[in-house]
Structure formats: C-alpha cells, structure tokens
C-alpha cells in the first residue's frame, strides 16, 4: 500500500507547507499549522464542482437568453432587503457572526416563515440535538409541519436527507461541524470546511435548492477557516451587534444577486428577533437636547439612508501625546480631520484628547460623515451647542473644501421626513434635484463656512 502523504495547513488563512512552522508566513499567526493528509487523485477530482449540463460548449454571449431569477420571499422585510429581494433558488449563502449573537435564532425564524407559506425547509444542526432545537423553537413560537429538523454532521447522510425531503431551503448550522469521511482531518479544519462547502455548492447548483450555512467568526472578526470560503459562496452576510445592546445588524458584504453593503436591523427580544423598519427613529430617540459636541448625520447603508447621532468629547490632555479614541468610525479619519481643523480653521487641537462615538452601536465608514465629525469636534472644543434640528452631510478635503457626496436627495428627504429643519450639505450638491418643502438646504464650500453655519460663528 502506498504511503499517505501529509502536509501542514494553516487553520487561519489556508497556507500550505511541506514541513511544520511555528509562524505562518501567510497570516503571521503563531501555532496555526496543523498536519493533514493529502487527498488522493480520485478524492481530489471528486471534490470539484462540476457543471449541471455536462458536455456544454462555449457559446456567444449574444445567443444566451437572459432570465430573471425567481426569488422566494422570506416575508421578513429586512432580510429580503439584505438578500436583494428574496432567496434565489440554487444560491449558497454564508452567515457569519460572533457566538451568541443570534445567527441560529434568525435562521430558525426564517425557516418558520418559509414553512408557514407551505415551503419545505430542512434545518440541519451539527451542534444541537433535535430536542434542543425543539426547545428553542417552542420559545420562539415556531411550529409548522413543513419544517424538518435533523441532527447530523456526516455530509453523505445530509445529502441523502436532502434528496429524501426535497426542500426549498436547507440550513446548515454550522459548517465547522460537518465532515467528509474521505478526508482524514478533523471537522472544522481548512480541508474539511473547503471540501464540505464545495459539496454544498454542488448540491445547491444541481438541485436548485437554496442553502444557508453558518460560519463561526475568529477573534479578528473574520469567518473562521480559509478566506477561500467567502469566495466560493454567492452571498456573505455578517450578523453584528454589541452584547449590551438589543439591536442586531445584518450586513451583506458580498452578494451576487443584489447590492453589497445593504443593511437590515433587528431587535433581540425574549420571543426572538423583531424587525426594525425605521432605524433612524431608534438611533435618535435618546438624543440629548442642548449638548455641545452632538450632531446628526445622514449616512447611506446600501440603498437606505440612516440618520444617526455623532458625539464628540474634546478635553485638555494630561499626557505628552493626546489620545484619539473613536467608536463606530475610523480613528485614523478622526486624526486627519482634526489636523484639517487645526491647519485650515485655526482650532488648537494638538493638546486635546478626542473621544468620538456613534450612538446606537452602528458603524459608519463612508466619506459623507466627515463634515459631521468635524462639526461635532469643533462644537465640543468651543463648547458651542449645535441646533438639534440640523443634519450635516459632506466629505472634507485636506485643503478644507467640502466635496460632493452621492445620493444627496435621498439623505435630505429622510431628514425632512424625521422633522429636521436644516441640512448643511456641499455647495456642489445644490443643483439638479428638488428640495423638500419642510427643510432649509444650505450649501457650504469650505469647512470654515460650515462651522459658521453650524455653530453660528
């Protein structure tokens, strides 16, 4: 019998080596190299996803008939938004998130919603028994004859169960517990995760069944296992939220059937997750009136404008190097904007500690929030109160100019809908659209002029 060959594979990034190393050259992680058996040529050839139409030939793109993908509605507005309008048959969706954030709760509720519309759903749990899943379903009020539950980790048995039930949707909770018997490495290893995901992709594409797989998250916040896993699936959804906040954010970072960076908001309650249809009101409901350092910004999350409160606290430092701390925004961007305020406006901030926070636990990463950050910093530094009915939108350049932003009409309309009376926007964004009647739109060319308008001098 031929001797089986082994290799060492990094469990964080998938880097392969013929010998063991303490530090992975790929991701610089320590003690991540695990010995695995190399699959035989027969096993390797079987792991690749093959086309459903064998023997197909290349054809001109002009001759290919375009068809609109028929989507299955989840009856959950927020989830449909993130998925791009519903579940696409034959799609493979990866759902990631921290332990205990509510991934299993969300997917069990999704299963219940689909089962209530007479769609067969197969929920496969590798971490809980059938009785444990039943107890959780009773707590969530889930009860339907079209929802099938299976506690199994062997992919051969899972494929057999899928062929027997013939469901519309399959949920795998989680991919780190599933294994292929042919592969000698342990469940959750790079080889097992990669090969099992490829097998589920083959099942989804050849049978036209939508499959949701749950992926654990590492300490760095990325999906555990090789980055290849995210490239293999059709959509990647991240379920985010703070343990001390009741709100959870479902964010699409990859979607072959819809827009990326789309966001859905849920509230965790005793009876499960409830949709938040108007998140702007939720984020602004606890806003304090008459406090310096607070301003509201209209940010775009995918196709949806969301109004959130930005808070800044500027205080004299007692150290040689002032502190720059930010929650919900990039702290490097905060340091850059403070340098612009000091150089172009004349605010002496080099001996001041700066603390910034986005209320509600949401994270903002678009340039349109620059003006709001600058206004909140200047407001706290000068101890001048901003108007509670003002909203600020704009990107700040290094020379102090206010640059145009995208989708200004949607942002201002959302602000007007929530009762804001004045919008401070880039001057270049003033033309080409109709202003709402109930809000005063002011265009500012520079940061200095924006401070005059926002702080009254």
UniProtKB/TrEMBL annotation:
Listed PROSITE patterns: RECA_2 (PS50162)
The residue stretches assigned to a coiled coil in this entry are: none
Q: Which SMART domains match?
A: AAA
Map motif RadA KNRFG motif onto the chain.
254-258
- GO molecular function terms here? ATP binding; ATP-dependent DNA damage sensor activity; damaged DNA binding; hydrolase activity; zinc ion binding
Among CDD domains, the record links this protein to: RadA_SMS_N
Instruction: Spell out the residue ranges making up region: Lon-protease-like.
Output: 353-457
Positions of ATP binding = 97-104
Mention one GO biological process in which this protein takes part, according to its record. recombinational repair
List, alphabetically, the InterPro entries matched: AAA+_ATPase, DNA_repair_RadA, P-loop_NTPase, RecA_ATP-bd, Ribosomal_Su5_D2-typ_SF, Ribsml_uS5_D2-typ_fold_subgr, Rubredoxin_2
Q: Does the entry feature the keyword DNA repair, yes or no?
A: yes
GO CC terms on record?
Answer: cytosol
UniProt entry keywords in alphabetical sequence? ATP-binding, DNA damage, DNA repair, DNA-binding, Hydrolase, Metal-binding, Nucleotide-binding, Stress response, Zinc, Zinc-finger
Q: Which residues form the RecA family profile domain?
A: 68-217
The Swiss-Prot or TrEMBL note on domains reads:
The middle region has homology to RecA with ATPase motifs including the RadA KNRFG motif, while the C-terminus is homologous to Lon protease.
The record's family statement is: Belongs to the RecA family. RadA subfamily.
**UniProt function note:** Plays a role in repairing double-strand DNA breaks, probably involving stabilizing or processing branched DNA or blocked replication forks. DNA-dependent ATPase involved in processing of recombination intermediates, plays a role in repairing DNA breaks. Stimulates the branch migration of RecA-mediated strand transfer reactions, allowing the 3' invading strand to extend heteroduplex DNA faster. Binds ssDNA in the presence of ADP but not other nucleotides, has ATPase activity that is stimulated by ssDNA and various branched DNA structures, but inhibited by SSB. Does not have RecA's homology-searching function.
Protein name (database record): DNA repair protein RadA
Whose protein is this, by species? Halalkalibacter okhensis
């Amino acid at each position: 019998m031929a001797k089986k060959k082994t290799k060492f594979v990094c469990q964080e990034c998938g880097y392969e080596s013929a010998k063991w190393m303490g530090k992975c050259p790929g991701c610089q992680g320590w003690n991540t190299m695990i010995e695995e058996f190399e699959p035989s040529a027969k096993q390797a050839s079987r792991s690749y996803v093959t086309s459903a139409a064998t023997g197909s030939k290349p054809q001109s793109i002009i001759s290919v008939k375009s068809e609109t993908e028929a989507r299955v509605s989840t009856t959950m507005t927020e989830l449909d938004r993130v998925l791009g309008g519903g579940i696409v048959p034959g799609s493979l969706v990866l759902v990631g998130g921290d332990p205990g954030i509510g991934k299993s709760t969300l997917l069990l509720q999704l299963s219940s919603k689909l089962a209530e519309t007479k769609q067969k759903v197969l929920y496969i749990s590798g971490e809980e028994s059938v009785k444990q899943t039943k107890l959780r379903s009773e707590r969530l009020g889930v009860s339907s004859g079209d929802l099938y539950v299976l506690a199994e980790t062997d992919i051969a048995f899972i494929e057999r169960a899928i062929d027997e039930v013939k469901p519309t949707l399959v949920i795998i909770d989680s991919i780190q517990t599933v294994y292929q018997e042919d592969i000698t490495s342990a469940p959750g290893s790079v080889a097992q995760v990669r090969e099992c995901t490829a097998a589920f992709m083959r099942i989804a594409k050849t049978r036209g069944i939508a499959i949701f797989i749950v992926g654990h998250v590492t300490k760095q916040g990325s999906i555990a296992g090789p980055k290849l896993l995210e490239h293999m699936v059709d959509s990647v959804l991240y379920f985010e939220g703070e343990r001390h906040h009741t709100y959870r954010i479902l964010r699409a970072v990859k979607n072959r059937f819809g827009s990326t960076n789309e966001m859905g908001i849920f509230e965790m309650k005793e009876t499960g997750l409830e949709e938040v249809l108007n998140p702007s009101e939720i984020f602004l409901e606890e806003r304090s009136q008459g406090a310096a350092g607070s301003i509201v910004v209209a940010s775009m999350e995918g196709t949806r404008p969301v109004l959130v409160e930005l808070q800044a606290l500027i205080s004299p430092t007692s150290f040689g190097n002032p502190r720059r701390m930010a929650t919900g925004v990039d702290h490097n961007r905060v340091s850059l904007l403070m340098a612009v305020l000091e150089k172009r406006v004349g605010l002496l901030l080099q001996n001041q500690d700066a603390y910034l926070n986005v209320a509600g636990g949401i994270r903002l990463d678009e340039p349109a929030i620059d003006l709001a950050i600058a206004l909140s910093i200047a407001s706290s530094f000068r101890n001048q109160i901003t108007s509670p009915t003002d909203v600020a939108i704009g990107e700040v350049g290094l020379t102090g100019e206010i640059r145009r932003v995208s989708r200004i009409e949607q942002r201002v309309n959302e602000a007007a809908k929530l009762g804001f009376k004045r919008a401070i926007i880039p001057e270049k964004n003033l033309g080409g659209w109709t202003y709402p009647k109930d809000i005063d739109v002011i265009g500012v060319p520079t940061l200095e002029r924006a401070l005059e308008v926002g702080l009254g001098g």
